[in-house]
Amino acid sequence: MTTTTWALALSWPRPVTVVDCDIAGGDMGPGMLAGRVGTDRGLLSWSAAARHDLPVAASAALLVEHAIQLPERPGVSLIPGFGTATQGQSFSGAAWERMAGALGQTAVRHGRDALVDAGRLLTTRGCWPVVRAADRVLLTVRPTVRSVHAAQETVGRLRDELGDLATVSAIVVGRGPYPAGEVASALGLPLIGELPDDRATAAALSDGEPMSLRAMRRSPLMRATSSLVRELAATTGPSLSSTGWAS
């Protein structure tokens, strides 16, 4: 899921803010941006600054101060997530509501999209206000029995939290014994796209392994993601999207 979120962000045609909302602990900064992400900016610092009585517009403006700009892609910024699961559990529902409102304001007023790594959506805790505010929710799943079984539980939780699955689509990652369309059908979701199991590019995006931008752009993963992004960007205006995970 982290790999998919980074791939989407680096292919996105408009300015985009990526937010690592995984309450189990954020991987987006320590992975691709290993050694370049400190502890002074991120969800916790933003939450401390965007106090309860701050207007939504002001909370949205603070996102810029607590984000990290990618020198490789000036239009992409990251709000790093939690250092530990304990920090994630401490983030209140009210804080998630403020984040959802701030991201919505950023999209509407400034034309800056948002991509959210939502983590494993299996409990009532987590960034559900952000997920509910998203225009699109993308569930990543592998075409295996084990992954589909885990995803079915996630789909049930999404239905409970969202009321329906109108905004939810499946992304099938890698090859397996079942076709992508059959996997999406088993989950009762439309298939938005397929991504290859490109381990070299995944290692660069999720683990900070060296890879030139030229090689990354030509990689199977990024070529497939570019096609997916064209469809996503064409079907939504400035928007908030969330990626969820199933193993």
Tell me the number of strands.
Answer: 8
For the residues shown, what is the average pLDDT? 88
Estimate the strand proportion: 15-25%
* Overall outline: globular
What's the Cα radius of gyration? 17 Å
Query: Which stretches are poorly predicted, pLDDT < 50 over at least 5 residues?
Result: none
User: How do the strands of the widest beta sheet line up side by side?
Assistant: 2-3-1-4-8-5-6-7
Assign a percent range to the helix content. Answer: 40-55%
Q: Which structural category fits the helices and strands?
A: alpha/beta
Number of helices: 12
N-to-C SSE string, H for helix and E for strand: HEHHHEEHHEHEHEHEHHHE
Largest sheet: 8 strands, mixed
Distance between the termini: 9 Å
Characterization of this structure:
The protein is an alpha/beta fold and 247 residues long. The protein is built from twelve helices and eight strands. It has helices at residues 2-11, 28-32, 43-49, 56-65, 85-90, 93-110, 128-133, 145-162, 180-187, 199-207, 213-217, 220-235; strands at 16-20, 68-70, 73-79, 113-117, 136-141, 168-173, 191-195, 240-245. The chain has an eight-stranded mixed β-sheet, sandwiched between helices. Strand 6, helix 9 (180-187) and strand 7 (191-195) form a beta-alpha-beta unit. Helix 1 packs across helix 12 and helix 4 (56-65) packs across helix 6 (93-110). The chain is globular, with a radius of gyration of 17 Å. It starts with a helix and ends with a strand. The mean pLDDT is 88.
